[in-house]
Structure to design on (115 residues):
């Protein structure tokens, strides 16, 4: 069973920062765009940020310059640096690898931001 393994979540205060990381099997990493999604209780899963194989980045409108996604093509990892966190950022964050034909998901990591 393929595993994408997320780490770095936890409880923080509003205004603080967190860095999420996701380890990806190399054969999947090299052929995939990498994405971070999140899902808050009672809400649909939404795209937070994505980075293509060539390094092009895209972000959800709600990020507004606070988050930064990066991929390490040597370590086969993708990270999400989250600054100035807000209570509305509270959610389970999921790592996703998307190739032309398949999609893989991590188990998710909880981020809880208190005011």
């Amino acid at each position: 069973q393929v595993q994408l393994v997320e780490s770095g979540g936890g409880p923080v205060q509003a205004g603080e920062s967190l860095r999420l990381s996701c380890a990806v099997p190399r054969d999947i990493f090299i052929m995939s765009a990498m994405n971070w999604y999140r899902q808050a209780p009672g809400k649909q899963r939404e795209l937070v940020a994505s980075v293509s194989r060539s390094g092009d980045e895209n972000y959800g409108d709600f990020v507004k310059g606070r988050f930064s996604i990066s991929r390490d093509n040597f370590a086969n990892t993708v990270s999400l640096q989250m600054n100035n966190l807000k209570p509305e950022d509270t959610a389970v964050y999921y790592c996703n690898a998307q190739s032309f034909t398949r999609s893989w998901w991590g188990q998710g990591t909880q981020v809880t931001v208190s005011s």
In short: DSSP finds one helix and eleven strands in the chain. The chain has a mean pLDDT of 96.
